[in-house]
UniProtKB/TrEMBL annotation:
Domain of life per record: Eukaryota
Organism: Salvia splendens (Scarlet sage)
Regions crossing the membrane: 31-49
Cofactor: heme
Membrane topology: Single-pass membrane protein
Similarity comment: Belongs to the cytochrome P450 family.
Protein's name according to its UniProt entry: Uncharacterized protein
GO CC term (a single one): membrane
Keywords for the protein's UniProt record, in alphabetical order: Heme, Iron, Membrane, Metal-binding, Monooxygenase, Oxidoreductase, Transmembrane, Transmembrane helix
GO biological process, one term: terpenoid biosynthetic process
């Protein structure tokens, strides 16, 4: 019995051993897999929980210097993506920096993208002026829209240097800006007529579309040598306008797959790629047509050197500088694109503040009246030289740039190309996206005193005890055009256009609030920061 039992047991064992082993094997494998997954998860969570800056800053990436870079942990995988993907990123980053005691430099994660942001003028200077930050991270939309071949997104190197030098000499040099003064004056006059027309027709004026038409025409005149009659619904003008708007939407849209690259295989909410692919052939068609018109021009329409537009300049390049047609399209399209909206939206902000502050509006009017006799006559058009003698107007434009910088985060970030030590002991690792929160710097009470949200041009008037600040990149307390090698090359042209237009608008009309649509200073951040509710106003002509 005992034997048989043993036998049976053994036999049973003999029969069931493989089965039992099978079961155990599965159990073991499942268990092992489970333990591995749990360990991986726990390690990941521990790593995440202890990495200031979030998931893209793991493994002590923020501790390369003697002082670690502080920052929020954010969510696993996503970091701070959810809070920064919509709304006013400059304000949110400023809040995050103050709650993390990280005003000087804050590390944060946009999905798998490690980023830093500073709200300190000294650190901002170190970053913007360094050759190690002379490249930019390139968004998918910018790549698709050909911008990586143009100045703004071309990596630091001989191609970018050549493009920048050509643009600086032939497009943005002071004598070129002066040469196009007549064109800018013409556009201003056309815009003033359109404003007067709308006022008499509707009893109020929606300024934005007039400013956009003026800016577009000003830049197409300089770049393409062409003006468009937007009122007459010129087909090419309408197409160009649409292309610029769509391009702005696409470049400004927050593209999740820029920061979570795996997402593009599943879901792309803003359909950025698809829309870029549809837009590019339309841009190419239009710009190539304009290039062809220039090539086909016969000798009878020969221009003087001063009348050359930018297409002429690019066509005249030779040797190593010569661009192929696709590169030309990219460069020309970028100029049209960049030169249009920033100026228009800055003028809209200035006018909104002037409507809310009638005293400041009348101060500008008085200043212009003393400088330019008969300012109110419809025939007198302000010149750049008049503007150079208008310190109050200059202070108003600076104050608008401070209160409402069109690029509150300087629009286009920088990318570190090496580990970069800062003077405060922190090290920004290579391949980190670096941003400057110019909005936060421009509203910092330690720099500007109390009431930083008040519109007070006097802070820039030496005669009123204010400070003279060079807004063109020389002083990081207010650098709305950026600084260093990648500083905005169009800043002088932008400032000249904005100042002339504001002067004309104030000289020819008194601007008062449209009570049915009160001025609302709420912001909307797209590629640039614009008024969320377009400005509506009532204008009273100062001229008979
Ligand atoms: C109020 C007007 C304008 C503002 C506030 C503005 C602002 C800026 C800012 C903040 C940058 C980035 C600078 C940096 O990274 O340090 C930039 C770059 C640039 N801007 Fe402007 N801009 C204005 C007008 C213009 C105009 C009129 C043009 C040309 C027609 C222009 C062309 C460019 C280009 C090509 C770049 C890229 C430069 C590079 O990466 O090398 N901008 N702008």
């Amino acid at each position: 019995m005992g034997l048989s039992n043993t036998y049976e047991d053994t036999n049973m064992l003999g029969f069931s051993l493989p089965a039992i082993l099978e079961i155990n094997k599965y159990c073991d494998i499942n268990l092992i897999l489970f333990y591995m997954f749990a360990t991986f998860l726990i390690c990941g969570l521990i790593n995440w929980a202890f990495s200031s800056g979030g998931p893209a800053w793991k493994n002590g990436r923020n501790k390369m210097g003697r002082t670690p870079i502080p920052g929020p942990i954010g969510l696993p995988i996503f970091g701070s993506l959810f809070s920064l993907s919509r709304g006013l990123a400059h304000r949110k980053l400023a809040r995050m920096a103050s709650s993390n005691a990280a005003r000087r430099l804050m590390a944060f994660s946009l999905g798998s993208t490690p980023a830093v942001v500073t709200a300190d003028p000294c650190i901002a200077r170190e970053i913007l002026a360094s050759p190690h930050f002379a490249s930019r991270p390139i968004k998918e939309s910018a790549k698709h829209l050909m911008f990586s071949r143009a100045i703004g997104f071309a990596p630091d190197g001989p191609h970018w240097r050549m493009l920048r030098s050509v643009a600086s000499t032939h497009l943005f040099a002071p004598r070129r800006i002066l040469a196009h003064q007549g064109g800018r004056q013409l556009e201003c006059s056309a815009m003033l007529s359109a404003v007067a027309g709308e006022q008499s027709l509707k009893g109020h004026v929606q300024l934005r579309k007039h400013l956009q038409a003026m800016s577009l025409n000003t830049i197409t005149d300089i770049v393409f040598g062409k003006r468009y009659d937007v009122v007459e619904h010129d087909d090419e003008a309408l197409e160009l306008n649409e292309l610029v708007r769509e391009g702005f939407e696409l470049l400004g849209a927050f593209n999740w797959s820029d920061h979570l690259p795996w997402l593009k295989y599943f879901y792309e909410p803003s359909r950025v790629r698809e829309r870029c692919v549809a837009l590019v052939p339309r841009v190419e068609r239009l710009v190539k047509k304009i290039i062809k018109e220039h090539c086909d021009r016969d000798g009878s329409t020969e221009k003087t050197r001063e009348e050359y537009d930018f297409v002429d300049v690019l066509l005249s390049l030779y040797g190593e500088e010569k661009l192929d047609e696709d590169d030309m399209v990219a460069v020309l399209w970028e100029m049209i694109f960049r030169g249009t909206d920033t100026t228009a939206l800055l003028i809209e902000w200035v006018m909104a503040e002037l409507i809310l502050n009638p005293k400041i509006q009348s101060n500008i009017h008085k200043e212009l009246q003393t400088l330019v006799p008969n300012t109110s006559s419809s025939h007198v058009i302000i010149a750049d030289t008049d503007i150079a003698r208008s310190p109050y107007l200059e202070a108003v434009v600076k104050e608008a740039l401070r209160r409402h910088p069109p690029g509150p985060l300087l629009s286009w970030a920088r990318l570190s190309t090496t580990d970069f030590p800062l003077s405060n002991g922190m090290v920004i690792p290579a391949y980190t996206t670096a941003m400057v929160n110019m909005w936060a710097i421009a509203h910092d009470p330690m720099i500007w005193g109390d009431n930083t949200f008040e519109f007070r041009p006097e802070r820039f008037l030496a005669s009123d005890g204010g400070t003279g600040v060079d807004v063109r990149g020389g002083d990081l307390r207010l650098a709305p055009f950026g600084a260093g090698r990648r500083v905005c090359p169009g800043r002088k042209l932008g400032l000249a256009s904005v100042s002339m237009c504001v002067a004309e608008l104030v000289m020819k009309f008194e601007w008062i609030e449209d009570k049915s649509k009160p001025v609302d200073l709420s912001e909307e951040l797209k590629l640039s920061c614009e008024m969320k509710k377009p400005l509506s106003a009532i204008v009273i002509p100062r001229v008979n």
